[in-house]
């Protein structure tokens, strides 16, 4: 091969690499809300989910008498229209151009300091946490909760005002595209350090807090650089399919429903429990601090739900009734500030069967007294692309409810480890 041929080949490889690393655009992609009214309609939507080809479900078709959100690419408009007509689907157009929604979400002033009027990259979040540790050295400690497949740290901070406090473990963004999850955790962390509110000060100083805003760092980076809709980890599982659902990969009732064994599926559970570096190492870290933890809170989006274990059954197991009572009080408090309405139940009864999740492993293996999962705002109008101006109100009402959870747990002796 001559010099010109070598140069041309190198140029083509470089061009391809740049093209493959460019951020995907979703110009004119539409987001539809669909009412699932019959078994036939459910089966059609499930067939579309298996088909792929540019379709993307933001909420999965699993039950009759439910709503799903489906992203439809421009080249599928005609096909989707035929399905709507043939199967009499009741649809509502929520977003006519998904790229415009993503662009609005990314827009922020380059002069703006870290805050909660915008979403931030992994590097910016980690730098902010480093700055916090430097400013509050007597209260904050940097901690590493694990590693990712691509070698990134799952970084967090421990907040401790007094030795011997019961612990609260805060897990966010295990699903990469759920940006509001990590933003909420950083806002609450900041409040625990800066708020003068008496109730906030009480929970800040009487519990040890373990904050991990981004527990799927590879996936989160990928949502910023390449594909905003990405959900999974980034470990290749065959020549075409990358990533597993890190909230289906935990070693408790693994693959007992609501998870896929198809590697390209968004709900692919992985080839075996803890196949993903993120879940394996984070679970090991939790085990190391577990004797001190009375409360485990996981944060997802969206649907406005407060969920209890378990995802594999609707049976009320462990201290279900007690936590349901606490949860009802919490969501009642949550609604007071901004009127946001939540529903409550275990995973299988409130949404659908979904096994292998983190909160099931925490409760099932360690019987941690209080284990809950938030599905934050909203109910589908914006879905995973919650506007930045909702970060603060969403976080305010969430903290209101967490105060109730901890106070009610204290009344019931659930923090006495």
TrEMBL record:
Signal peptide coordinates: 1-21
UniProt keyword list: Carboxypeptidase, Disulfide bond, Hydrolase, Metal-binding, Metalloprotease, Protease, Signal, Zinc
Catalytic residue list: 375 (proton donor/acceptor)
Keyword ATP-binding in record: no
A Pfam family the protein falls into: Propep_M14
Cofactor(s) it depends on: Zn(2+)
Domain (Peptidase M14): residue spans on this chain: 118-409
Top-level taxon of origin: Eukaryota
Coiled-coil region: none
InterPro entries hit by this protein: CARBOXYPEPT_ZN_1 (IPR057246), CARBOXYPEPT_ZN_2 (IPR057247), M14A-like_propep (IPR036990), M14A_act_pep (IPR003146), Peptidase_M14 (IPR000834)
Family statement: Belongs to the peptidase M14 family.
PANTHER family: PROTEASE FAMILY M14 CARBOXYPEPTIDASE A,B (PTHR11705), ZINC CARBOXYPEPTIDASE A 1-LIKE PROTEIN (PTHR11705:SF153)
Protein name: Peptidase M14 domain-containing protein
Lineage: Eukaryota, Metazoa, Ecdysozoa, Arthropoda, Hexapoda
